[in-house]
Amino acid sequence: MMLQLTNAERAEVLTQALPYIRRYTGKIVCVKYGGNAMTNEMLKQQVMEDITLLHMVGVKVVLVHGGGPDISETMQKLGKEPVFVDGLRVTDKETVDIVQMVLAGKVNKTLVNMIEHCGAHAVGLSGMDGRLIEAKIKDERLGFVGKITKINPEPVLALLDKDYVPVISTVACDRDGNTYNINGDTAAAYIAGALGAERLLLMTDIAGLLADKDDPSTLIPQVTVEETRTLKERGVISGGMIPKIECCVTAIEKGVNNVTILDGRVPHSILMELLTDEGAGTMVTGG
């Protein structure tokens, strides 16, 4: 679409973005990256371009990523069938080793390399580095799936201070040396809170919170924490949307200004959300 704009129109677009750039320059914005935007190569490239552009205009972007499809694919290649309980991956000792290898290795370093190629400097971290994420067992049935007990934001703040984009894989540890698989949305909420982030963007595979889950035209563009409780009681928030909304509420309770469930299928949805009036999902605020 940009190729069809005249130079004057491009200049106008940049001018209109200026107030938003001013608003977020010097502020921390956390992006939880996963879903379809992570498996579609064109969308993946656009997400990295969005992050690089924001970084270059002075926004302190922190990228927190998952990688569930890559984990499942690697497990199957190794002859191990993925098992899920209540949407969470059952993670025995062998599986947690695979999670660490895929998330902290392949996925993390691929994203770091892509950001560097776009022109920003990035450094990959796992939640184990500098004890960024400490955890304990969440549920014995799930094995090494972790419940976060502590966030140490210092490694991330140090990288931001040196003008790097931190890229964080959601693998955690405890004081006994055990490794844990952490839900990406939950990790992003805790990290954003510990960093005092201005915004948290949770990228997903749907338009956002819908009044009718089968009708994308019923998108609810903004809700307060209190309204989410009412919508949950009415059954509007149900199924897989429940943990998403709970993560939004957690982030706000920990001090994040607002959280947006962002449609990761929309090209450049991050820029649309931060630098235009239009937005690209459902914003949850403290009210």
Main β sheet profile: 8 strands, mixed
Strand order, main sheet: write it out. Answer: 5-8-2-1-11-13-14-12
Radius of gyration: 19 Å
Order of helices and strands: HEHHEHEEHEEEHEEEHEEHHEHE
Q: β content, as a range?
A: 15-25%
Q: Helix content range of the residues, please?
A: 40-55%
- Overall strand count: 14
Task: Explain this structure.
It contains 10 helices and 14 strands. It is α/β, with parallel strands linked by helices and 287 residues long. It has an 8-stranded mixed β-sheet, with helices on both faces. It has a two-stranded antiparallel sheet with strand order 3-4. 46% of the residues are buried. The model has no long low-confidence stretch (mean pLDDT 90).
Task: Write a brief caption for the model.
The protein has helices at 7-24, 36-39, 41-56, 68-77, 93-118, 154-161, 184-195, 225-233, 241-253, 269-275; strands spanning 28-33, 60-65, 84-85, 88-89, 122-126, 133-137, 146-151, 165-169, 171-173, 179-181, 199-204, 222-224, 258-263, 281-285. It is of the alpha/beta class and 287 residues long. Strand 6 and strand 7 form a beta hairpin.
